[in-house]
Amino acid sequence: MGELLIRPRHNQPAATAPAVAATSATSATNAVATRTGSTPRLMGDPGPLGRFGDYGGRYVPESLIGACREVEDAFRDAWADPAFRNQLAGLLATYVGRPTPLTPALRLSAELGITLLLKREDLAHTGSHKINNVLGQALLAKRMGRTRLIAETGAGQHGVATATAAALFGLEATVFMGERDIERQALNVFRMRMLGAEVVPVRSGSRTLKDATSEAMRHWVGAVNDAHYCMGSVLGPMPYPWMVREFQRVIGDEARRQCATELRAAVPDYVVACVGGGSNAAGTFAGFVDTSARLIGVEAEGGAGATAGRLGVLHGVRSMFLQDDDGQVREAHSIAAGLDYPGIGPEHVHLRDLGRATYVTVGDAEVVEAAVRLARTEGIIAALESAHAVAWVLGADLPAGSTVLLTLSGRGDKDISALRELL
After folding, report:
1. Could you say which of 3, 72, 152, 378 is catalytic?
2. What pLDDT, in 10s, does the model give residues 11-27?
3. Cα distance between residue 45 and residue 230, in whole Å
């Protein structure tokens, strides 16, 4: 079956791939609007085709079409069920510790001449935003009668969250992780195994997140009757980009309410988040997409799907991916394992095309400097993924008096060994 990816040349229509309806994205959006009598809105329901503008869709083998549709139907049913929403909200409050604080970065703000507010997802249980999505999918899996969770992970935070939810609900967990990432994220590997998860090393390709995702999806093909694939980002076939964004929307909704209290203008001038696949950014942006705030997604310089990618299909979704002239996916690089992915979620590309969000890159050296500076000015050791967003703020030369909301997506415990070697 290969890598469960289809890679058309960037100048070829992805509709040539099998198992995907050819209806245009705009038509799909308008069709949904016509049925509901509403006006299409950004970061809403992408409709049954799962299209965000020209991106998204469901590009998977026939053996997974039924499974994806079953997940979509189950999610639509659950998301419309107040009992499901209340159960998830209760877990987010009593187990995860939500709402997470909005912390003013006082010293850094003074140095930069701005007001910088940090949305503290690093303080959520397990140490990152990943738990928001995983608890939602784990509840959905139980609702569907599944007994096992399958997941991919790069930095290990999604794997830890999956192992945590599996332990909480009495499910089995199988986590696929690139061999290279296992080496640089040894602490999180131990955490997953301590929680009872099976961690499967992936030795193919670049031995990072892309290859772990391929192996996880391949494994799902043979386990659809008893396992739920718990995608960790706003990637993959419909309904995953939409479903994961909706589970992460809690970040943006909370931050919107908190900013209304903290800021005189109620809405910040800039909303900033790091982007790999882009789930923490999507969740944050969802709370501000209908405001005047400028949305800034910060990618790794060596893994920049939005800024350097070409149109193609990978892991079941039509989006922008790093490719060579023959349409072959190029290897990504980032000092942060969670951003070491050669593409970006389809909704982010749609936001970029509309001019609603801007995507920028920072390099590894800037990221390390940002992590150190945040630690020494605010006493917060951020994950290297989150430090990408900090690095952009430090180097952006923002207008004096600007207000900035930055989602600190994870804590830096997992990166201490790498930082110790680098410093």
Report:
1. 152
2. 333 332 322 222 233 33
3. 20
Expressed as residue numbers, the domain containing 352 is: 97-128+248-422
Active-site residue, 409 included: yes
**Is 338 a member of any domain?**
yes
Catalytic residue among 128, 279, 334, 409: 409
Q: How many CB atoms lie within 10 A of CB 28?
A: 22
The structural domain count of the chain equals 1
Q: What is the mean pLDDT of residues 165-184?
A: 96
- Tens digit of each residue's pLDDT (9 = 90 or more) over 268-283: 999 999 999 999 999 9
Helix (H) or strand (E) holding 174: strand 172-178
Catalytic residue, from 130, 279, 301, 386: name it: 130
* DSSP H helical ranges for 222-345: 240-262, 279-286, 305-308
**Has residue 412 been placed in a domain?**
yes
Determine, yes or no, domain membership for 256: yes
Domain harbouring 388, CATH code: 3.40.50.1100
Overall average pLDDT of the 175-202 stretch: 95
Decide if 366 is catalytic. no
Known active-site residue 152: yes
How confident is the model at residue 40, as a pLDDT? 54
**Residue 124 maps to a domain:** yes
